[in-house]
Design goal:
By secondary structure, the chain is of the alpha/beta class. The chain is 38% helix and 8% strand. The chain contains 10 helices and 6 strands, in the order H-E-H-H-H-H-E-H-H-E-E-H-E-H-E-H. The chain has helices spanning 2-12, 40-43, 48-55, 61-65, 89-93, 127-133, 148-162, 200-225, 232-235, 261-281, and strands at residues 34-38, 103-107, 167-172, 177-178, 229-231, 255-256. A 4-stranded parallel β-sheet has the order 1-2-3-5, sandwiched between helices. Helix 3 crosses helix 10 and helix 6 packs across helix 8 (200-225). The N and C termini lie close together (11 Å). Mean pLDDT is 93; it is low at 16-20.
């Protein structure tokens, strides 16, 4: 972490971090190896190239979506943190050490249903208490009994042990696009009411109950381990009201979680601004 901060401080002396100005092509961070771990929001490989351009990071799309030399890909669409299967984010993250990263962005947990995040025996009442009470999973095999929080903490602990010189950042999810007045289609027609979101109040209730808690759990994990937390929810300026500007067309479930080009650029801008702001605060 210290080496990255020093490089970013050098970069700060060379460039502005305003939204309209890009970083120089030969920054002090040039050559730092970036590893991005996640689900489809990372496997899209749409926001990482901006960071490569601005900071000069070395980043491999093949490592991200295919894996190299028999090691697991770091990002696969539709996957959960929970180690329910060998393709889970937890199991794949065990191979991160083979890619020798200097910086790791862990952008996960959008897919894990909120009902699986906490063990039934957890008696915590606040996000911090719940995270503290959930034991980290350290297994090397799949285990469906493991909660999302246990698996997430296990990922963090494995990454810190396996990649001790890497700077690890946790990234929180953003509000997604929800289509008001739309009836679910296809396989989703029998799963949700019609319309799924009759008004903006229903959208906000869904976000508050299903997605915001995930964001706050990741924030609490970052706090517990003393790791930087990049809050896209708060930094991006994307809201339930303007989400259509930053996301593609909605799917049959009346939502869209995948940003469009503008949305992915905004993700990259938030990460850039966080890194530069962090360096300035050193």
């Amino acid at each position: 972490m210290k080496h990255l901060a020093l490089a970013l401080l050098c970069l700060l002396s060379l460039t502005s971090c305003s939204e309209s100005e890009d970083a120089p092509q030969q920054p002090a961070t040039k050559g730092k190896k970036l590893l991005t771990i996640g689900d489809s929001l990372t496997a899209c490989c749409e926001w990482q190239p901006w960071l490569v351009e601005w900071f000069g990071f070395t980043w491999s799309q093949s490592e991200t979506i295919n894996g190299l030399d028999g090691h697991a890909p770091m990002a696969v669409g539709g996957t959960w943190v929970k180690p329910n299967y060998t393709n889970s984010i937890y199991i794949r993250s065990l191979d991160a050490k083979y890619y020798d990263p200097d910086i790791i962005f862990l952008y996960v947990a959008s897919n894990d249903p909120i009902d699986y995040w906490v063990s039934e025996t957890n008696t915590g009442t606040t996000y911090d208490e719940i995270v503290a009470a959930e034991p980290a999973y350290h297994g090397l095999t799949t285990d469906r009994s493991v909660s999302t929080l246990s698996a997430y903490k296990g990922i963090v602990e494995h990454l810190r042990e396996d990649c001790p010189d890497a700077s690890l950042y946790l990234i929180g999810i953003m509000p997604l696009r929800c289509e008001i007045g739309m009836n679910p289609t296809g396989e989703f027609a029998a799963m949700y009411p019609s319309p799924r979101f009759p008004d903006m109040e229903a959208v906000k209730e869904f976000e508050a109950n299903e997605r915001w808690p995930k964001h706050e759990f990741v924030r609490a994990i970052a706090k517990r381990y003393g790791l930087p937390f990049i809050s896209l929810w708060e930094m991006s300026g994307i809201t339930d009201e303007n989400a259509a500007e930053y996301y593609g067309d909605v799917a049959g479930d009346c939502t869209q979680v995948h940003p469009n080009d503008k949305g992915n650029r905004r993700v990259a801008e938030c990460i850039r601004d966080f890194l530069l702001g962090e360096a300035q605060a050193q």
